[in-house]
Amino acid sequence: MRRKYYPGEAVPAGTYWNSKSLEMATISEDDENLPAGEGVTYYRAPLPLVLLLGPLVGLAFVIFLPFAVPAIAIHALATRAWRATPWAARQRGAGAKVRSGR
Question: What is the DSSP track for 34-97?
Answer without folding.
Answer: PPP-TT--EEEEPHHHHHHHHHHHHHHHHHHHHHHHHHHHHHHHHHHHHHTSHHHHHHHHHHHH
